[in-house]
Design a protein that fits this description.
The protein has 278 residues and is of the alpha/beta class. It contains twelve helices and ten strands. It has helices spanning 5-10, 24-33, 55-72, 82-95, 105-115, 127-132, 134-142, 155-162, 168-182, 202-208, 218-233, 253-264, and strands at residues 14-18, 39-43, 76-79, 101-103, 120-125, 147-152, 190-193, 214-217, 245-249, 273-275. The strands form two sheets. The protein has a six-stranded parallel beta sheet with strand order 4-3-1-2-9-10, with helices on both faces. The protein has a four-stranded parallel beta sheet with strand order 6-5-7-8. α5 (105-115) crosses α7 and α9 (168-182) crosses α10.
Length: 278
């Protein structure tokens, strides 16, 4: 039987891009949910962090990264960066109308709104994400009566990149950030991890907050959203063998491979990381 164009499109990889290695937590969640799919990951390490850049610059960077993935051939694109999702999602969708594009903010906001019982939702993220209020706006658009509070936790990024995910140091930092949030009469019942680095500290965070509070991991929620999109479009691969992952980075393939292992949860060979110029 002859294959159709749609059949070929189903076997294209899913493209994922981020400003660095943090988005590998999203890729990890995706590979767990979609073990037979192929993935192409781009980490723009030469220009990180995006959070300190203007919205115009972030949009330009995101469009360049998306163009690289599109030129390689992808059937769906994931913006695995909170700053780029908040700033450039619409621009990327407009630039690539034939490719579905999923960001990390909307799925996290949707899950938080479904999870909360009291309507009190806390968001922890980098200073730039909190300042930009992307999660606030996304949550309030879905649930206008919600009480959303944002709390920057910049040291979590350093802890994640150093590999200090658990233990006394991680829990002490988590307690310093989160005790003022959760040790109050009107504490939130839902906590959104609004940075792709933060899922690595989920255990430490869970150990210092109210055990009844729901933790919303934007990596997992994004993976769920991608699954729904593929099902809706009937674009799941027919492959039954383990899928493959290819890596692209804009700076220092060796460091990408070394640092990325902790985020992806498995080893990355330097030889498997291709250096590209945006």
């Amino acid at each position: 039987m002859n294959k159709t164009a749609t059949d070929y499109n189903k076997e294209l990889p899913i493209g994922v891009f981020d400003s660095g290695v943090g988005g590998l937590t999203v890729l990890k969640a995706l590979t767990m949910r979609l073990p037979h799919e192929r993935f192409l990951y781009l980490g723009d390490c030469a220009r990180l962090p995006y959070g300190t850049k203007s919205s115009g610059t972030v949009t330009r960077y995101a469009l360049q990264a998306a163009s690289v993935l599109a030129s390689r051939g992808v059937k769906l694109m994931v913006i695995a960066c909170n700053t780029a999702s908040a700033t450039a999602l619409d621009a990327v969708r407009e630039a690539h109308p034939g490719i579905p594009v999923v960001g990390v903010v909307e799925p996290g906001a949707q899950t938080a709104c479904r999870a909360t019982r009291s309507g009190r939702i806390a968001v922890i993220a980098t200073e730039s994400t909190i300042r930009g209020r992307a999660y606030h706006e996304a949550i309030l658009a879905l649930r206008p009566d919600a009480e959303v509070t944002g709390h920057p936790c910049p040291l979590f990024v350093s802890l994640a990149e150093e590999g200090w995910h658990t233990g006394d140091i991680a829990e002490a930092v988590a307690a310093r950030y989160l005790d003022p949030v959760f040790n109050t009469p009107d504490a939130p019942d839902t906590l959104v991890l609004g940075c792709t680095h933060f899922p690595l500290l989920r255990q430490a965070i869970g150990n210092v907050i109210n055990p009844e509070a729901v933790i919303v991991d934007s990596a997992r929620t994004t993976a769920h959203s991608v699954c729904l999109q593929l099902d809706e479009l009937a674009m799941n691969t027919a492959n039954t063998t383990p899928g493959q992952v290819s890596f692209l980075t804009t700076d220092d393939a060796a460091r990408f491979a070394r640092t990325g292992e902790g985020f992806l949860g498995r080893g990355i060979a330097e030889a498997d990381v291709e250096l590209v110029d945006l």
